[in-house]
Design a protein that fits this description.
Layout lengths: L14 E4 L2 E4 L1 H10 L4 E5 L2 H10 L22 E5 L7 H10 L5 E5 H6 L20 E3 L6 H16 L9 H9 L4
Parallel strand pairs: 3-4, 4-5, 5-6
Antiparallel strand pairs: 1-2
Helix pairs in contact: 1-5, 2-5
The structure holds iron/sulfur cluster.
EC number: 7.1.1.-
Subunit structure: NDH-1 is composed of 14 different subunits. Subunits NuoB, C, D, E, F, and G constitute the peripheral sector of the complex.
Cofactor: [4Fe-4S] cluster
């Protein structure tokens, strides 16, 4: 017989519960579903990508967060993980991949290079991917350990859970994309 005390139950979204029914906001349910089924698109160019491979593997097991389903097609992914040094020549490609993802979509900059150019303060390296696409979470480190990548994914889950279903059609969001010249 299983010992239920061994398991931690996830709290349901805030709402009103009674016998035989549970009332909450549609936004909270959508947020909960989205947050626990983020499909990653790994855009890995160098060493940080190796850390992500470890994060995917059995020891760290990103499947615990509902994110084991890799997508190498931008159209079937909603969490873009950018890992590694991004050369300025590659920036338009990264931007194209971001634009090809359908809404809603989120971005994590994994490691110092993706976040700020890292140690490569040089003419050929993009000094942070937020120069070309909006970023939701930055993971520090060179390289970040798998625990830090998981922490970044958990931070993003919190953002996703609390995002209004109307955010993507808001003026504020359009202005954000407009500031990157993305339509
Ligand atoms: S942050 Fe460090 S480990 Fe990650 S890609 Fe850059 S140099 Fe490599």
């Amino acid at each position: 017989m299983s010992d239920s005390s061994k398991y931690t139950m996830v709290e349901p979204p805030a709402g009103y519960a009674g016998e035989g029914f549970f009332a909450t906001k549609l936004s909270d349910v959508v947020g909960l579903a989205r947050a626990n089924s983020l499909w990653p698109l790994p855009f890995a160019t160098s060493c940080c990508g190796i850390e992500f491979m470890a994060t995917m593997a059995s020891h760290y097991d990103v499947a615990r967060f509902g994110s084991e389903r890799m997508s190498f097609s931008p159209r079937q992914a909603d969490m873009l993980l950018v890992m590694g040094t991004i050369a300025k020549k590659m920036a338009p490609i990264l931007r194209q991949v971001y634009e090809q993802m359908s809404e809603p979509k989120w971005v994590i900059a994994v490691g110092a290079c993706a976040s700020s150019g890292g140690v490569f303060d040089t003419y050929s390296v993009l000094q942070g991917i937020d120069k070309v696409i909006p970023v939701d979470v930055y993971v520090p480190g060179c390289p970040p350990r798998p625990e830090q990548i998981l922490d970044g994914i958990m931070k993003l889950q919190e953002i996703v859970k609390n995002e209004s279903v109307r955010r993507r059609s808001s003026d504020e969001y359009k202005d954000l994309l407009g500031s990157y010249n993305i339509k």
